Structures are given as C-alpha cells and as structure tokens.
Input
Amino acid sequence: MITFTLNTLEYLNDYSLDNHYLLDIWGKVMYLLVNYKLFSYKDLERLKDLSDDQIDCIFSIACKSVIESGDENLLEGELLKLTFFKASKKLLIDKYAKLSEK
Output
C-alpha cells in the first residue's frame, strides 16, 4: 500500500493538470490512509529526486489531508518535523494558509 501510494503521489502532478479535483480526492485519501495507519506522513521521506512541480503537488495533498483531519496541530506537530517538509517550511505554511481559506 505504501509503495502504491508513493508512486501515485510521485506522478499525480502530471494527471492533476487535466483534473484539479484529483488533489482534493487524494487529500481525502491520504487522510484516510494516515487515519487507518496504512500510510504515514513519514513515508513521504522515501521520495527522491522530485521536481518542484511534484513537490508542490505533494505539499498540496498533505495540506488538504491535514485540513480534512480537522487537526491543525498536525502541521507543526508532525509534518514540519519531517525532513521532506522542513526544507520548505515557508512553502508548506503558505500553502496550508491558502488552502484552508477556501
């Protein structure tokens, strides 16, 4: 399940160009996978050599997952402790603020 999720997230940016709802759907999917302990945000650290567009897409999905959970503390308490997100802390916080306005 983890490998499938990571592979999908890695290439989702290419598909989301035609359908932006995929990001919303995968935000909910990621929330459910994390909630049922089938996936962890820490698993994202396995991803390597991503383009800026891929990283932006994954950040959007992670933010939508946190929004779906209703637990804003996940941002500081879990995501920003991970190397994957720590390197781009400002991007993650800005993206979360923008997406949670909607």
